[in-house]
Design goal:
The chain has two helices and four strands, in the order E-E-E-E-H-H. By secondary structure, the protein is an alpha+beta fold. It has one domain (4-73). The protein starts with a strand and ends with a helix. 12% of the residues are buried.
Length: 76
């Protein structure tokens, strides 16, 4: 398994939504659809993430990882 860079939570309410970024530029998202359908996992490419979600990820990103995560997301 690739080395993890960081995990970033973008949950806005009581449903979980967390992105994990890895050294090889893979992105894992673990999220809850609703209380009975939780901890769903999907592997994403940067172009599959909406601009609105990218905004939330960068906003919640720890400062020491921000530049690296912006590069992975191809964030302006």
């Amino acid at each position: 398994m690739e080395k993890e860079i960081c995990k970033i939570s973008v949950a806005g309410n009581w449903l979980g939504d967390e992105y994990t970024f890895y050294e090889n530029h893979t992105i894992k998202r673990v999220y809850d659809n609703h209380s009975l359908n939780s901890n769903k996992t999907e592997w994403l490419e940067p172009q599959q993430i909406s601009n609105q979600s990218k905004d939330k990820i960068i906003k919640n990103c720890p400062e020491e990882f921000k530049e690296r995560i912006m590069q992975i997301l191809d964030y302006p």
